[in-house]
Amino acid sequence: MEIDQVKTFLAVAAQGGFHRAAEVLRVSQPAVSARIRALEDSLGASLFVRGGAKLVLTPAGRTLRPHAEQLLRDVAQARQAIHQLQPSAGGALRIAAALSVATYFLPDVLKLYQAANPKTMVTVRAGNSKEVLTMVLDGEADMGVARSVNHPDVETMTLRDDPLILTGHARHPDARRRRVRLEEVESWPLIFYDRGSSDWTLTQGLFRRAGLLPNVVLEVEGIEAAKRMVERRLGLGFLPQIAVAHELRRGALVAIEIIDAEPLHRNLDVIHRRDQPLTPEGDALLKVLRVAAGSWKPLGPEKRASSGRRARTTSIRG
């Protein structure tokens, strides 16, 4: 039994097929088949029921799965123990972060982290969530902070919700109503960003499932550009809560609740490779991230009701 065989077994079990497992592992499908066949030969038992639309585990496969997961955890802990024996001048931490996270969330987090860990050298690389996942898988980053990331080769720890919120300028004529139906929003001037991204796909899907066609007046690159356009009253946009929390608190922007549509739910996640647990530097950052995420809350309804002349806002929760 080899480590690659065990990882491949877990990937096939999670994905339900050899083809999808090959895609996530970034190896050929014949390589996946060969690893599973070799693992079954070494154990003397079939691990999957073949022939259906989706592979399912045999009793032997179900028995093996928790042991396989524990085996990978043990290997990772052994590597970490060896890593901690290496001399260090204070440690280093490589972070991959989604652009929105790097822009709106990490600066305050890293200020707290470096105050407590002044000797740790921190580097941050930004990209979209898919690029963050790739950097972690390729070993270019020790950990990633992104939105709604899942992969069989990474551990995913969710910090909090980060839904997309329909947002407008407080003085935009369409933003005067805070509870509307999706059919009404269809004709409003909307600003979309990052065509083809997961945020773009989620927003488009919201209208498509209702048989509606959104009135997109602007398409831009990046969340920050879209937010700036909303602030200039050029339209309204579905923006991540993380990007507009400050403006919602100040009342410069307002959130509109769509009462007949599901919330556009996203998570703020921390990821690292399953076979490489977080280093002490990474563990320390994770603690700060959890504290920051726990204290980072949107303006609550009770505060909105008592805010006097300030604009009332409504958050769409994921």
Brief write-up:
The protein has 318 residues and is an alpha/beta fold. It contains 13 helices and 13 strands.
Explained architecture:
With 318 residues, this protein is of the alpha/beta class. The protein has three domains: 3-85, Winged helix-like DNA-binding domain superfamily/Winged helix DNA-binding domain (Arc Repressor Mutant, subunit A, Orthogonal Bundle), CATH 1.10.10; 92-161 and 267-295, Periplasmic binding protein-like II (D-Maltodextrin-Binding Protein, domain 2); 164-264, D-Maltodextrin-Binding Protein, domain 2, CATH 3.40.190. 46% of the residues lie in helices and 20% in strands. It is built from 13 helices and 13 strands. The strands form four sheets. A five-stranded mixed β-sheet has the order 4-3-5-13-6, sandwiched between helices. Strands 8-12-7-11 form a four-stranded mixed β-sheet. Strands 1-2 form a two-stranded antiparallel ribbon. A hairpin with a 6-residue loop joins strand 1 (48-49) and strand 2.
**Sheet/helix structural class:** alpha/beta
Shape: flat
Widest sheet, order of strands: 4-3-5-13-6
Q: Total number of β-strand segments?
A: 13
Calculate the mean pLDDT score and round it: 85
CA distance, first residue to last residue: 42 Å
| Structural domain tally | 3
Give the percentage of residues in beta strands.
15-25%
CATH architecture of the largest domain: 3-Layer(aba) Sandwich
The main β sheet shows up as:
5 strands, mixed
CATH class designation of the largest domain: Alpha Beta
Topology:
Layout: H1 3-15, H2 18-25, H3 29-43, E1 48-49, E2 56-57, H4 59-85, E3 92-98, H5 99-104, H6 106-116, E4 121-127, H7 129-137, E5 143-147, E6 154-161, E7 164-169, E8 179-180, H8 182-185, E9 190-193, H9 198-209, E10 216-220, H10 223-231, E11 237-240, H11 241-250, E12 253-258, E13 267-273, H12 280-295, H13 301-305
Helix pairs in contact: 1-2, 1-3, 1-4, 2-3, 6-12
